[in-house]
Amino acid sequence: MRHWQGRQDELVQLERWLRDAALQVVGVKAAGGFGKSALVRKLMEQLQVADDSPFERVLAVTFSQGYAFSLWGRWLMAHFGERVEDSTGDEALAQMAANRLRERACVVVMDNLETLLTAANRRWIDKGYERFLLDWLGEPGHSVVVLTSREEPEIPNNLGRYCRWCDLVGLTVNAGAALLRDLGVRGEHAAMAAFVAEAGGHPLLLKLTAGWLWAEEPEAPRLEYLDRDVDGLNLFEYVGAHRSDPETSVRKILEVTLDRLPAPMRALLPGLSLYRLPFGLDAARVMGADDALSEAELQRLTKRALLQSKKVTLNGERVRLFEFQPLVQRYLRGVAKRARTDGAGHSKAIEYYQQRRQPLGSEDGLAETVPYQEIFHHYCELGEYAQALATIRVQTDEQDRYSSCDMVLQLRGHNAVRLALYERVVAEWHPEGDQALDLRGDALKAMGEVLQFLNRRDEAIENYDQALGLYRQVGSRLGEANTLQAMGEVLQFLKRSSEAIENYDQALGLYRQVGSRLGEANTLRAMGEVLQFLNRRDEAIESYDQALGLYRQVGDRLGEANTLRAMGEVLQFLDRRDEAIENYDQALGIYRQVGDRLGEANTLRAMGRSQDNIAQGIDYLLLAQTLYEQIGALYSQGVNLYYLGGMYTQTQQHSEAVSAYTAAAALGKQINFAPLTQAAEKELNGDT
Fold this sequence. Notes:
This protein has helices at residues 8-18, 36-49, 69-78, 90-103, 127-138, 173-182, 189-198, 203-216, 235-241, 246-259, 263-272, 281-288, 295-303, 326-338, 342-356, 366-381, 385-393, 405-411, 415-428, 434-453, 457-474, 477-493, 497-514, 517-533, 537-554, 557-573, 577-594, 597-609, 614-631, 634-650, 654-670, 674-684, and strands at residues 25-29, 57-62, 106-111, 144-149, 163-167, 308-314, 317-323.
């Protein structure tokens, strides 16, 4: 690390704590600019090159924004090669993450933790993180969680003995003086030591001071220059007067530094601070509306400690990205807000990400949606919530229903990201006028769908109720129908079948009024599922048959495949196996055409279970298992293995049966689904 000085005592203490098997959380706490993040990065560098390191890997994330726990938890599990089902709630995810850390020897760094805490009382904004830490501290393990924060989160007294916190203070006088000399500042050691003492050894303050001196005296930046009156300000005296509050001195030096920048650069920096992600030269040029801006000019700002830079590999090329130290970024955003230039800055950021985004499709993933998410954020900052919603919901290809940001996130299982987007709109936007209220209804309904995916069904119904009220208020019959249908799905899952059918009946009438054949088809298929559940199978087949005709009329291939598979399940139950297999075979062909691997796997499993020839049935289930593993569908893998165990038992393949049941039980534990584990273990304890 460049310009690293001192902190040897802190590094020794922190490494001792990391190696202490009795400790599970190690924290570094200090106000902004004291170098918490840099200290932990240095510690990790030392640990990774140590021959006797007890840890296999370091997993680090900086919370530049308040990422949802469900997103962070899935990121962590992905590093262990595990995909978490969308339906897994935060409590189960917290337990899964804690269990993996007990099994593995890792260091998990959570940098800038204060972003996740309320400013008033240090409480967790997202309770998932609290649940994770409590689960992690509940039992010993091989890993260590390292936190950096301005504030120490509340941890119960009985668990505090497993935690250690380093209250980071400023650099020593000698280390601070060495830092100034390393930054090119000249002067007598006594004078440097005196200034470091006045500055409280605050690293960011020392770096900003060095940058200011370089700007004032580029040929020979001497510390003595601070003790002169410059525009009525003696910085040496000012820093000394605010010794107990280094952030005040940081703000003052930032103020005088900005005042001395060339006008274009002075105007550029507050705008750049509005970017949430590290940015390159192209983003800076858009923000400054200056194609002549050079990387060298941005690099000069790093010498003044106004920016930080790093080289990264993007698309196979090494590029330089820039970002702000959090305290500097907060100050500059305040400058933009006070000058009322933040609106123009957010508009420029939108312009940049609009240039970067590419049309989306079903093959894309989270990375391809990032420009859309950033455009959404900046529109929200402007208060333009209708545009924000359009950014994530409108298809980029009219012929591809999976070409919107929202649909890509849904297909890839990033429902935590979707929830954060819709939660923001719902919390911040309180519009007037029918058109805007209709859009707010869309946001509430979409949020309900995400909550439904996440098994938070009571909250989903609450959101649907609010959306329904808005749609009825503005006279949107299509919105009303869509919401009634969605509510029906939740009610059916909760086994409130009569209420579900009532909702579907209302939705069906509305769809027919507005001429929505696709909505009518979806509702008929959903009604078929309820009728199937109620053992009214002839009526279910009739409902499915009507839906199938409508899907074929509108050309919805996926809807057609889903209905064929559902009809196959009913026909199989009625012991009309030849008809069932014929339906499954048609569905399988369509799933393969549209690239729906989960649909393909589910159909293969259904076909396997419908075979009279058990050996052939096993072949189908094995094909399904391969697809489930490729997709990362853990629940489906476990259930399929359970079925395989039964078929192996029927064919006297006892060792294969034991292997299948054992794997199913393990997956049940992994995803915290007790019924699967219990069923598999029951078989293992039997005659298999």
